[in-house]
């Protein structure tokens, strides 16, 4: 199931542009950034698309601006997860902050979950109709309208004469150049904003990876401080590597030498212990064999035979018997 996918799953390698295209095409929206879904309303409707009728859409607020309103949306989403027995943890405190990486990872998980049901196909689902009973549905409807559709050509304006056109073009020759410069600057700003967003995502990913490995090293350090093993040479070798202040490869070689020396010291002790065990086993076998040989044989004779033997011995030495 999608709620058990790991961080190295292919779902977390889906790009931001693909996620935005998937959201806009599925819900008929026009989101420009992944952070626009930080309110939790988009996630609620995606679950409604996968499980029609399960999400109470009248409780979803598409116009949530404050953290309180956003939390209410995530409460609705959590109730749906509980009904479906989905164990995915929703990090609400991070999502409502609008950080790009946190919202991207959660939307990547949402896409993986939706794709795992009905192959990601939503039959007979009308997202606009389902949003009609929600709060802020008018704002969501405005987002779903393409900005290009709002521009209408003016068909009532008459075509200016050539004389008027010449006068307008000669009146201010720098106007066209200014318009071109503004368009160029706008395109450059958009490109820079795109690069800044990508860099922020890279930085957030690196920070998360750094924190992950630091926590692992901290766990190893705590384990090495256990009283039962803290004086062990192996632990000393691990601490030597952990607390090294430079990237010198000789540190690892020294740690390996410490472990090898300890193994050499333990080897004679192990051989002596093995010899003691073999000697003890031989002693036990010899004692058992001697006890078998020294047992009296007449104890196995019946009682009548033993009495007969005693009477024969007594009679053989009697002076009364003479022939």
Describe the structure concisely for a colleague:
With 323 residues, the protein is mostly helical.
3D structure, described in words:
The chain is mostly helical. It is 62% helix and 0% strand. The protein is built from 12 helices and no strands. It has helices at 16-27, 41-50, 67-84, 92-95, 100-115, 127-130, 137-144, 162-171, 174-224, 233-242, 250-293, 303-316. Helix 2 runs parallel beside helix 3 and helix 10 (233-242) runs antiparallel to helix 11. The radius of gyration is 44 Å and the shape is elongated.
Give a short account of the largest sheet: none
Percent helix range:
55-70%
How many beta-strand elements? Answer: 0
User: Roughly how many Å apart are the termini?
Assistant: 111 Å
Outline type: elongated
Rg over CA atoms: 44 Å
Strand proportion, as a percent range, falls in: under 5%
Structural class estimated from helices and strands:
mainly alpha
Q: Give unreliable regions as ranges.
A: 146-161, 318-323
Q: N-to-C SSE series?
A: HHHHHHHHHHHH
Mean pLDDT: 76
Output the number of helix runs.
12
Layout of secondary structure:
Layout: H1 16-27, H2 41-50, H3 67-84, H4 92-95, H5 100-115, H6 127-130, H7 137-144, H8 162-171, H9 174-224, H10 233-242, H11 250-293, H12 303-316
């Amino acid at each position: 199931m999608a709620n058990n996918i790991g961080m190295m799953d292919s779902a977390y390698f889906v790009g931001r542009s693909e996620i935005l295209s998937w959201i806009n095409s599925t819900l008929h929206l026009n989101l420009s950034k992944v952070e626009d879904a930080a309110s939790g309303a988009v996630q609620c409707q995606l679950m409604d698309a996968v499980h029609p009728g399960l999400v109470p859409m009248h409780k979803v607020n598409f116009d949530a601006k404050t953290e309180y309103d956003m939390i209410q949306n995530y409460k609705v989403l959590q109730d749906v997860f509980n009904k479906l027995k989905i164990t995915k943890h929703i990090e609400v405190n991070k999502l409502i902050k609008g950080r790009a990486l946190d919202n991207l990872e959660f939307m990547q998980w949402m896409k993986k979950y939706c794709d795992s049901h009905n192959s990601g196909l939503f039959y007979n689902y009308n997202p606009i109709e389902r949003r009609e009973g929600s709060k802020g549905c008018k704002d969501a409807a405005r987002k779903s309208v393409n900005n290009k559709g709002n521009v209408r050509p003016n068909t009532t304006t008459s075509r200016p004469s050539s004389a008027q056109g010449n006068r307008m073009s000669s009146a201010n020759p720098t106007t066209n150049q200014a318009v071109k410069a503004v368009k160029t600057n706008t395109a450059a700003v958009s490109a820079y904003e795109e690069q800044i967003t990508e860099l922020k995502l890279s930085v957030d990913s690196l920070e998360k990876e750094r924190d992950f490995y630091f926590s692992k090293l901290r766990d190893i350090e705590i384990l090495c401080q256990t009283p039962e093993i803290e004086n062990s040479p192996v632990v000393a070798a691990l601490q030597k590597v952990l607390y090294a202040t430079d990237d010198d490869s000789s540190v690892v070689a020294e740690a390996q030498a410490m472990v090898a020396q300890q193994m050499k010291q333990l080897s004679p002790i192990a051989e002596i212990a093995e010899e003691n065990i073999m000697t003890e086993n031989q002693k036990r076998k010899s004692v058992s064999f001697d006890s078998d040989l020294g047992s009296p044989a007449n104890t196995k004779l019946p009682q009548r035979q033993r009495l007969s033997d005693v009477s024969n011995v007594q009679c053989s030495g009697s002076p009364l018997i003479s022939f």
